[in-house]
Amino acid sequence: MLDAIIVGAGQAGLTMGYYLKQEGYNFLLLEAGKRIGDSWRNRYDSLQLFTPREYSSLPGMIVKGEGNGFPCKDEMATYLEEYARYFTLPVQLQTEVFKIKKEKDIFELHTPTETLQSKKVVIATGGFQQPYIPSFSQHLSSHVFQIHSSQYKSPSQIPKGKVLVVGGGNSGMQIAVELAKTHEVTMSISHPLTFLPLHLFRKSIFNWLEKLGLLYAEV
């Protein structure tokens, strides 16, 4: 019987594992991927975080490299893998949980190969696992090439011609900027966006937010 099972070994799951280990709990992390960090490795080639390494680190271990620089996706994937190894966190890979059932005070987690029991369960799979595709996409001509950001890798995938990028989030913005070098790009955004500079007076905007007490929240 485990004290806790964490579903997902990304940033949130590993952080939870770090703190549970500090307190001496008997726990297990379940990760669907073949390797820790695969959710980063599988993203588009040019993905770069907009948070500096200094503010992209998990507790107890910094991201290697220049603190004010911005890590790329593969750098983050490697960091997460090294983080789990450094703290010897118990991670079970290639384990997808398809059902969770509670019997009295015990949770049962069903995987394709076994059923695990735990007193507590932490869901750390993230909020963006299911791609959102606007319904109007179904009514476009079959001659219109469509691709979701989760399948996008590089501009070489995109046919010549005009491109419409739907969505103004981090991925949409980065992909639009990249495609603008080789294509005529238009963006479709549902509401006005407000932008903050990444640096202010030669310091990261996150540094200023931290000094103003706006970056972290007490729990």
TrEMBL record:
Gene3D superfamilies: FAD/NAD(P)-binding domain. It comes from the Bacteria. The keyword Oxidoreductase applies. InterPro entries: Auxin_biosynth/cation_transpt, FAD/NAD-bd_sf. GO terms for molecular function: flavin adenine dinucleotide binding; monooxygenase activity. Keywords: Oxidoreductase. This is NAD(P)/FAD-dependent oxidoreductase. It comes from Bacillus wiedmannii.
